Amino acid sequence: MSIISVPAMTQAVQAYSYAGPSTLTGGRLGLSTSGGTALSGAPAHPRFFSGLLTQAAPAAAGLLAVADVALTRYHQPRPGWTRDPVVTCDGDRLRFESFSACGGVYARLDVAAIDGEVLDRGTTNVDVNGPLRESLARVGGRDPLHLGVGPDELTVTTLDGAVVEKKVPLPVRWLRGFAEVQVIAAGFDLRAELKGPRAVRFLRSLPRRAGATVWAVPSGGDLRLAADPGPGAVGLSGTGRLATLSPLLRFAKALRVYAPAAGDGFQASAWELELPGMRYTLAVSPQPWRGFSGEGAVLDHLSTDEAAGDADVVGMLLNFEPAVELGLLADRSGLPVGRVRAALTQLGTAGRVGYDLHDASHFHRELPYDREQVAQLNPRLTAARALAGSGAVRLDGGLAEVTTSGGVRRVRIAEGECTCAWWFDHRGSRGPCKHVLAARIAARARTDALI
């Protein structure tokens, strides 16, 4: 697998190369792999696991659901490219991830119901093709399913001539969204938890129209639908984006809903189904037309001069562990916990860590794009650094004036308020504008100069 950059970073093109197609025959699921990163290095076709899926039916349905999200464009549906799911083996579980073509839905299946040999730890892409999807849809019953993540030596030998090559565009908006959703999720709280029958009943009560909008209001140990927000309500715009949960309801043991603790209007949320031996999580953006790429959640962390250096230190300590412990990283790196958290944000934008809501912790994985492109994936941050570096910022206590080609913008630094059109349109709901970022960068530089 390789990444080919395209001028002006409008998109990259990812070239997948599989030793052969993924197959499911005779009770054996063989997932072909392409590139990525492993503890052993960067093999062309990494081999991570060989053993049993002890809960075959929900695992097959969950993997199919992850693949469906990768295939779907929820906003303004039209044919397009599918980006193959990503799998991470951390020695404790297998995590399958995907991101919708429209950039507004993130899916992950965390499978702990495995029994076999962990051959390596790391992250890779896996081939999910049409025939495999049809086979996964037919898996049922209680029999375990043998799983191989990566080809064994015999498979590599006998598949000569069966190499599968794909070239898939990766738009900048898609890349940024895959990174941003992890940082946004880290700010969610558990807002509701429903046990089996109640979870199924609530999800089946959702309107089937793709663009329907509802509020889910906690009521005791249940959720009720409302047309207007109430205390503790979680907004869901585009109920059709939860469609991949439906085939999993026959296995559902519980539903957990996560969202920011407070805020006005629709916000991003996450919907987690507890299944036998695994969890399936969907994170959805505030509205179907609004992908995760423009949320700006990472910008304040990335704007600090020390973040990049700290990220290099913390990144070297990651070892594909199932849960990243902040305190342990702080001890090993010699950094305060706050700087470790900011470093993890930087690593998140580079695709090097994800966030597990159930465990309330980051986990190490390596998405297949170049971490050196982080600044280019955040044009607001690039513009802010240019403004601060050019002397366009005049500080006056907690206020600032930022001179731009469009006039002078007045900023309240701590509050993150600005007189620009971006702030008036979004009121901070999509991260700070470039003028606020520039003022904060200049204020930090002045403070550092006085120390």
UniProtKB/TrEMBL annotation:
It comes from the Bacteria. One of its GO terms (molecular function) is zinc ion binding. Keywords: Metal-binding, Zinc, Zinc-finger. The lineage of its organism: Bacteria, Bacillati, Actinomycetota, Actinomycetes, Streptosporangiales. Residues 409-444 form the SWIM-type domain. InterPro entries: Znf_SWIM. This is SWIM-type domain-containing protein.
